[in-house]
Design a protein that fits this description.
heterodimer; A: 310 residues; mainly alpha; MetI-like fold; 0% strand; elongated; B: 311 residues
Chain lengths: 310, 311
């Protein structure tokens, strides 16, 4: 029988184990690392720029993205190449490509962030419950996760959209419903290891309720994982949204979305390559920025190492 | 052996769940299947009689039981849109194209990803390493449909090295660009993964020992390094194959390949419910089956896994 002083147990109960984020100097260390990593810095700057563009799209865009300009088509009815007025040219309906590109940021970011947020919420709840409760509950939840995971993600989204009908809200819901599985699996694994740690045992010994243990002792340790997966998830969600819109079942017309712009530009590629190049480059840069930011966050937050425990 | 049986039972359970999900999916589709079969001009009586033939007037449970019964016999139902064709036969016709595409994609992943990762790991911060890292990031971030269109434009339209789209004879020729587009993302992913694992292995004591023993670098690479570095890659390639076989609808639709993905997509635009359910089901079963195969293969590659699981 080990005799632990009462106050030591109490300390374990009141103060949860410090997480990566609550370590002293974390923010200073992160800031310094960011300044020495120009690629990560550029990625975050680009994401910030995208956010600004998305919020102030109507102020930044030179024209209305839906307006069909009479001088937006050449005399044979073809798209106009980039010039002084239309900086990135016009599309087949005589609309300004730059303005559509700028409003497209809104769609991409909105869908990317909201879908990932929703997916993270579902994933964390299911993963935590499965990992913490264990037993039959865990088996049922994880087998269900396996089932959803066994549908190819894009085909799954396409089939769901076929049932629910294309709309921005449905695109978000469908992506969230397909993506939560990845986080649920990782979270479950982490919860399994966290709940065996001393501070959780101590809290349980002291009779702390399950909900409070999850909230105060387990969730804080999941935050690094959620941040990393969330950032990478935004990149994935943006790609899925673009793919759905490319297939014509994403964000409904005539709203500007990068995937839809690429799909439309397909037919005019020979005569008007800017129709494909502009949204394609925008899409690549955006996804690249979120991937690079996710890489940097993985390095700095190191969720895998944290899982092993110190 | 007991582990194998348990894993097999688990696979069957997941497939059963997947079939159930597919049934729920088909059941909640808002369109009236009888109306779709009968056609827009059909009288209400005709629609009702077709609904009776299809068993749509029976209870959910009875429909579910007969659905399960059909699936067990490999009967995926009859297409609404393609009159008189069964879903299974359509998938059977489309599958070879998808299979060739999938295998091609896997080959590209191996041919590009693994050597790039190994060279990058042996020469960190070299030109090859930097090029591979940059290429990997680009490959991971470029949307496949955009990449495919670019390849078509430059390599098929501008210089006409490759056919523009569709399929023809010899099939391999028509599959080079699509399978490259399919494999490039995975190649990017594997090159980074192989780089990390090879670097880890190179730092471990047994490699040091092999070097001290005077074992030639080439032998070390093939006998020791690759064996360790490729185990995780092989399992993930297996998962990729399952995923690809389910149909890669974007790439199939860009390149005009009449595979399973294309079939799924066209059935969605006509709201051909049995076809949608069938293709999604087949895709999911491929995934579940490949993950089973991979798990079993893993125990042969790495005996430690077997020991751990026996516990």
């Amino acid at each position: 029988m080990i005799n632990l002083p009462e106050n030591e147990l109490n300390a374990a109960f009141t103060a949860s184990e410090p997480t990566v984020l609550s370590q002293p100097n974390f923010w200073r260390r992160a800031g310094r690392s960011l300044l020495h990593d120009p690629i990560a810095l550029c990625s975050f700057a680009f994401i910030a720029l995208l956010a600004v563009v998305a919020i102030f799209a109507p102020l930044i865009a030179p024209d209305d993205p839906l307006r069909q300009f009479s001088n937006g088509l050449s005399y044979v009815g073809a798209p106009v190449s980039p010039n002084g007025h239309f900086l990135l040219g016009t599309d087949a309906s005589g609309r300004d490509v730059l303005s559509r590109l700028i409003f497209g940021v809104r769609v991409s970011l909105l869908v990317g962030v909201v879908a990932t947020g929703l997916a993270s919420l579902i994933g964390v709840v299911i993963g935590t419950v499965a990992g913490y409760v264990g037993g039959v509950t865990e088996s049922i939840l994880m087998r269900f996760t396996d089932m959803v995971l066994s549908f190819p993600i894009l085909l799954f989204c396409v089939a769901l959209i076929a049932v629910t009908g294309p709309s921005t809200r449905n695109v978000v819901l469908v992506i969230a419903f397909a993506y939560w599985t990845y986080l649920a699996r990782v979270v479950r694994g982490q919860v399994l290891s966290i709940k065996e740690r001393e501070f959780v045992n101590a809290a349980r010994t002291l009779g702390v309720g399950h909900v409070k243990i999850i909230r105060k002792h387990i969730i804080p340790h999941l935050v690094p994982t959620i941040i990393v997966y969330g950032t990478l998830g935004v990149a994935t969600s943006i790609l899925i949204e673009a793919s759905l819109s490319f297939l014509g079942i994403g964000v409904p017309l005539p709203q500007a979305s990068w995937g839809e712009m690429i799909s439309e530009g397909q037919q005019y590629f020979q005569s008007a390559p800017w129709l494909l190049v502009a949204p394609g480059v925008a899409l690549i840069l955006t996804v690249l920025a979120f991937n690079l930011a996710g890489d940097w966050l993985t390095d700095i937050l190191d969720p895998a190492v944290q899982e092993v425990g110190s | 052996m007991t582990w194998f049986l348990r894993r097999f039972a688990q696979m069957l359970l997941v497939i059963f769940g997947v079939v159930t999900l597919a049934f729920v999916f088909a059941y909640i589709v808002p369109a009236n299947p009888a109306r779709m079969v009968a056609g827009p001009q059909a009288s209400p009586q005709a629609v009702a009689s077709i609904a009776h033939q299809l068993g749509l007037d029976r209870s959910v449970w009875s429909q579910y039981v007969s659905f399960l019964g059909r699936i067990v016999h490999g009967n995926l139902g009859i297409s609404f849109a393609l009159q008189g064709r069964t879903v299974a036969s359509e998938i059977w016709i489309a599958l070879p194209y998808t299979a060739v595409l999938a295998v091609g994609g896997i080959l590209w992943e191996i041919v590009i990803g693994i050597p790039a990762g190994i060279i990058a790991a042996y020469r960190p911060r070299s030109v090859v390493d930097r090029f591979a890292t940059f290429g990997a990031l680009l490959g991971l971030s470029a949307p496949p449909f955009w990449l495919g269109l670019m390849l078509i434009y430059f390599l098929a339209y501008k210089v006409s090295w490759f056919p523009l789209n569709g399929v023809g004879h010899p099939l391999i020729w028509y599959m080079i660009l699509p399978s490259f587009t399919l494999g490039v993302g995975g190649a990017a992913f594997y090159s980074r993964m192989v780089r990390t694992t090879v670097r880890q292995v190179l730092r471990s004591p047994f490699i040091e020992f092999a070097r001290l023993k005077g074992m030639p670098e080439r032998t070390i690479l093939f006998r020791h390094v690759l064996r360790h570095a490729l185990t995780p890659v092989i399992t993930m390639l297996g998962m990729d194959l399952g995923y690809f076989l389910g149909g890669v609808l974007i790439i199939e639709s860009i390149f005009g390949i009449p595979g399973v993905g294309q079939l799924a997509f066209s059935s969605i635009s006509t709201l051909d419910v049995p076809m949608i359910t069938g293709t999604v089901l087949v895709a999911a079963v491929f995934m579940v089956f490949m993950s089973f195969v991979v798990d079993v293969a893993y125990t042969f590659i790495d005996p430690r896994v077997r020991l751990n699981r026996a516990k």
